[in-house]
Amino acid sequence: MRFDIISVLPELLESPLNHSIMQRAKDKGLMEVFLHNLRDYAAGKHRQVDDYQFGGGAGMVMKPEPLAACIEKCLSERSYDAVIYTAPDGQRLDQSLCNQLSMKDNLLIICGHYKGIDERIREKYVTLEISIGDYVLSGGELAAAVIVDSVGRLIPGVLNDETSALFDSFQDDLLAPPVYTRPADWEGMSVPEVLLSGHEKNISEWRHEQSLERTRSRRPDLWERYEKG
């Protein structure tokens, strides 16, 4: 799977995408990430990528020309299953969307900055707009990193345990159950006996019950969606 990411500050993405699971995915040849510096496509001595917005108001807007040049360069080299823009008014990123995107081959992500990108770029090129939450970030790079991480880990072979991702929180609209490790007794607090029993059916039932209870009490919005099926 390949991710192409367009950014004004590509260095912000180097650390989160070059360590841990994401680095192992790249080392295994299961995932590729290419960063495109938008300033390389900007004209003029100062390689300006933003300008004042028409109609007045505070904040700058990312210019259409550099973005179009970069996007066209990418499109000339391959086709993309989605051209994604990280936007606060986009579709909320959830596990279902991550699952869908993990089955794609090529994704192009545009990182917003300042007051956003010129609307004409969204109209001409963008096929999917994604928000990672109802809050404001300084730029779209962190959102892009979240998308790559949450989608990339679902690619078959990325995780050491092939079934691990299937039992994460939000799969089937349920939160994951509590987990424990050694020692079995720590500061007077003991691991539930069922987890020490070795009885797989009882353990599975206990975990499911805990997922139900945790979702019901902590995320009533998810619980409502789960009940509706």
Structural commentary:
This protein has 229 residues and is an alpha/beta fold. It folds into two domains: 2-152, SPOUT methyltransferase, trefoil knot domain (Alpha/beta knot); 169-228, tRNA(m1g37)methyltransferase, domain 2 (Trp Operon Repressor, Chain A, Orthogonal Bundle). Helices cover 34% and strands 18% of the residues. The chain is built from eight helices and nine strands. It has helices at residues 20-27, 64-77, 95-101, 119-124, 141-152, 193-196, 200-218, 220-228, and strands at residues 2-7, 32-37, 50-52, 60-62, 82-92, 106-110, 128-131, 185-186, 189-190. The strands form three sheets. It has a five-stranded parallel β-sheet with strand order 2-1-6-5-7. A two-stranded antiparallel sheet has the order 3-4. Strands 8-9 form a two-stranded antiparallel ribbon. The mean pLDDT is 93.
Could you give a quick summary of the protein structure above?
With 229 residues, the protein is an alpha/beta fold.
The CATH topology of the largest domain, please?
Answer: Alpha/beta knot
Task: Estimate nothing, just give the exact number of structural domains.
Answer: 2
Radius of gyration equals: 21 Å
Q: Total helix count?
A: 8
Helix content class: 25-40%
| Chain-averaged pLDDT | 93
Percentage of β-strand residues: 15-25%
